[in-house]
Amino acid sequence: MTRLLLPLLIFLSLAAPAAAREITVFAAASLRDALDEVAELYRDETGDDPVISYAGSSALARQIQQGAPADVFISANTAWMDVLEEDGLLAPGTRRDLLGNSLVLVAGVEGPVAELTPDSDLAGWLDGGKLAMALVDAVPAGIYGKAALEHLGLWDSVAGQVAQADNVRAALALVAVGAAPLGVVYRTDAQAEPRVYVKAAFPRDSHPPILYPAASMVEKQQDALPFLSFLETGPAQDIFLRHGFTIIAE
Fold it and tell me: Is the pLDDT of residue 10 over 90?
């Protein structure tokens, strides 16, 4: 009887489907809409389950430094990924630049769209209200925004009116609900929120290039690599493009 059961047990163990894997992804808040859609597609195609935690890149990087169990990290700038790489927390050879973005000034009311220049009356546009921005010394969108305003010579005129938020989506929400008349966000954020309108675009040379690097963590490489590779496939890139991101060519 035992001899008859053994081949059957072996067959059943081989035939059983592989258990679905849960992949913990830490991602910049500006990726939420697009990455949720990409994750759903990956879930449908593989059966694995990407679980995504969104926040400012600085907060996520610090959590990883403190031992948070991330499999994948997608930052909104290279500096925070550099920090984790210097700490030896990235799996070697897994880092890649995925996406690009651009910076815009948004308003809660629709109007003509211009390009910000040194002659723009940003303080006048605020009319005593607040300029919503992500944390200007920590969160990538805030860092890019402050750098751009300084480059244009506009920062000193509005610095006292800046309302800083924990991440770029929180800054976007301040404009969407009318708590701030203007905000500095990514173009993809403006596209995702129907209650705001682009008032002005920032010149691309007014700030460092906006890049989204991704990598897996040390000891998490095997679970993370298939998902990282999927982010660079045509179907995933089509989703990112539709949400307003640019694709970084190898």
Answer: no
